[in-house]
Amino acid sequence: MESGAGKRLLLIDGSALVYRCYYAFIRKPLRNKKGEPTSISYGILQTLLPLLAARRPDKVAIVFDTAAKTFRHRAYPQYKAHRPPVPADLTAQLPRAREVIGLLGIPIVEQDGVEADDLIGSLAKEAERAGATTLILTGDKDFFQLVSDRTWVLAPQGRTGELQPMDPAAVRERYGVPPEEMVDLLALMGDASDNVPGVAGIGEKTAAHLIQRFHTVDELYRSLESVERPAIREKLRVNEPNARLSHTLVTIRADLPLDRHWDELEREPLRARELSSLMTDLEFHTLRRRFAVELDEAPAAGPASGGAPPPDPEGTPPTDLFPETLSPAP
């Protein structure tokens, strides 16, 4: 395995990216004149082209879940069980989205029986041990437990999706605890989106106060009688099995045997001609003009007659999902 000194790894949470792109245009989904839905492909290009240009990672991958069950489902059959079915028009866009990712030269990583979170965690920590720095693009707060001096999270903020680099100080400022205590905080809070139970009646503020004082779930339960508020103490006592189960569910594995290692995640050259053709076919005219340099094309000019450029079916998106100007990060 090669030395990671001076190398930069970018890991992209594929499911988070796909869902964010889909729902960014949910009120006005994009389609080309053939009727093909194109919101996800547009969002991926709008996201990754500027990000790759700004960060210029030495290694990169987009990581997806597979349909196979993981250890979390075995530990807790209700894990993610309440989620609604994936919208049919989202599923229909995935083959084209994967094609776009391939044209960008980004390796797709997935491993049966292993959740994408654990693949990302294991790759990030493998790179960290080799001396590399890692950026993880995700909106999932679970990943803050991985943050260190060499591993940061790029977290989209709010509707605009502005990327905030989260280092250890930023995690502590946001949640009141350092990254190494985020698992314990999340175990008490639970996570409705993944059906992780947590401790009923304990929200983020109370969980943060408890972890600031006791630091770990284990120490909290060893010292339960010193929790001053009787109501909080009783909630913790009654829900101890859920708290300990939740700790297991929210812990990202960072020690998995990997089919592909961090130093094998080479980005292939961008297939500019094919990508430009695809953008034309999907009628991303504005996007194609915006990234003419990346596509190694002369910027498109208007028609010689002086008329307007071709109509732009994608219209004006509600916001930039991830703007080009990013704060410093590893």
Topology at a glance:
Layout: E1 8-13, H1 14-24, H2 39-55, E2 59-63, H3 71-75, H4 88-91, H5 94-103, E3 108-109, H6 116-129, E4 133-137, E5 151-157, E6 162-166, H7 168-175, H8 182-189, H9 204-214, H10 217-222, H11 230-238, H12 240-250, H13 272-281, H14 285-290
Parallel strand pairs: 1-2, 1-4, 2-3, 4-5
Antiparallel strand pairs: 5-6
Please report the total strand number as a whole number.
Answer: 6
Low-confidence stretches: 300-313, 315-328
Outline, from the CA principal axes? Answer: globular
Structural class computed from helices and strand pairing: alpha/beta
Distance between the termini: 21 Å
Strand order of the largest sheet: 3-2-1-4-5-6
Rg to the nearest angstrom?
22 Å
| Approximate helicity band | 25-40%
Instruction: Give the biggest beta sheet.
Output: 6 strands, mixed
Q: Helical element count?
A: 14
Binned strand content: 5-15%
- How confident overall, as mean pLDDT? 88
Account of the protein in words:
This protein is an alpha/beta fold. It is built from 14 helices and 6 strands. The protein has a 6-stranded mixed β-sheet with strand order 3-2-1-4-5-6. Helix 1 packs across helix 2 (39-55), helix 2 (39-55) packs parallel to helix 5 and helix 8 packs across helix 9. The radius of gyration is 22 Å and the shape is globular. Mean pLDDT is 88; it is low at 300-313 and 315-328.
Short key terms for the protein model shown above:
330 residues, disordered C terminus, six-stranded mixed sheet, alpha/beta, globular
